[in-house]
Amino acid sequence: xxxxxxxxxxxxxxxxxxxxxxxxxxxxxxxxxxxxxxxxxxxxxxxxxxxxxxxxxxxxxxxxxxxxxxxxxxxxxxxxxxxxxxxxxxxxxxxxxxxxxxxxxxxxxxxxxxxxxxxxxxxxxxxxxxxxxxxxxxxxxxxxxxxxxxxxxxxxxxxxxxxxxxxxxxxxxxxxxxxxxxxxxxxxxxxxxxxxxxxxxxxxxxxxxxxxxxxxxxxxxxxxxxxxxxxxxxxxxxxxxxxxxx
Length: 246
Description:
By secondary structure, the protein is an alpha/beta fold. The protein has one domain: Vaccinia Virus protein VP39 (Rossmann fold, 3-Layer(aba) Sandwich). Helices cover 28% and strands 27% of the residues. α2 links the parallel β3 and β4. α1 packs parallel to α2.
């Protein structure tokens, strides 16, 4: 049984009412995006967190970039309530607002565009679903298909903005047609695996609107643990400001 809470250095994630629990790859993704936003000088940006769940990604972004303004959107009522509680307990209520609803309809003002959009979306489309409706919403793309996510990004992302997404490595084959359809292009990939002996199982990506001149896409590989089962140096560098044990 998953723990009812996960303690970080500067905040606590309670997750007993959320189907999507804290995961290692989710934490890695949050830390990577927070660093990218800080490195590019986007700290005072407007940000949309699609499917915030416990509020984890928004809190990691806000810790590293305290001037950011985040709309954290969540379709499942219990998860949205728990995210709000986690955010208030971390004293980040002025930085992050949780919006209950479908990302395709929230916020009501469709003219709002964001400098940054982030998402750890449902992983599975057209696969066996769980009898638990909350888990289906969190893990299966019945409520927001990948095509719909890219369409949303295309319309709600600023012309010079960036979209960050975490996906299973096996979903890579679906991305090319979506990039073409919605005139988006990748600028950075990080291929994630458990160890150097394991195949890649996640991809963290940074995407932007297609430019007149093609933007070079950089690629990196990251292993979470080494042969000794200890965290690797790149993982420790990213998570040092968040994990208690690092």
